[in-house]
């Protein structure tokens, strides 16, 4: 198990994956809640079976995979359905996050959790790293990435912790409104800082 667990978080389209990929390039193990969230609703999983039972087979694509865009539209327009889905998925996702974190081999590991603040998962990490961008940039990037309507993205942003709330719990911050060179420099500096923290505690 890694000696230090860094909780990486940020709003939709803030650049969490880009940041975690940079840490991975230094040989750091990444536990990604978004990847886990997809795995627990893959074909033939209990998670997907429960979703089909709740929403019907129309929630599937032609390939019988979960239609994530359709599910997103449903749950972000119906709070009751959103609460049902969260009650199903959160325990499954948390169990896998704990398992993968316990098996991490790198000196420190990154636990990437978009809803770290909202789901009060701070107790799973030693430090919290927030990827921060302004909402206008966030909306523009999310629309370009997901090909979603502005209203859907705005609903997601509104449902997540505010920028102020995230920054309030941050131990470390990456500003992601510049170019990739600046982002890479910030990640490199943090990587060295985390190694220094470990060297001081050993």
UniProtKB/TrEMBL annotation:
Main localisation, per the record? cytoplasm
Q: Do you know which CDD domains this protein is assigned to? A: DPCK
Localization in the cell: Cytoplasm
The pathway is: Cofactor biosynthesis; coenzyme A biosynthesis; CoA from (R)-pantothenate: step 5/5
EC code: 2.7.1.24
Q: Which UniProt keywords apply?
A: ATP-binding, Coenzyme A biosynthesis, Cytoplasm, Kinase, Nucleotide-binding, Transferase
* Catalytic activity from the UniProt record: 3'-dephospho-CoA + ATP = ADP + CoA + H(+)
Record's keyword annotation contains Secreted: no
The record ties this protein, via InterPro entries, to: Depp_CoAkinase (IPR001977), P-loop_NTPase (IPR027417)
Q: Does the keyword ATP-binding apply?
A: yes
Function as written in the Swiss-Prot or TrEMBL entry = Catalyzes the phosphorylation of the 3'-hydroxyl group of dephosphocoenzyme A to form coenzyme A.
Q: Which family does it belong to?
A: Belongs to the CoaE family.
- Please give the name of this protein: Dephospho-CoA kinase
Species source reads: Brumicola pallidula DSM 14239 = ACAM 615
Gene name tied to this protein = coaE
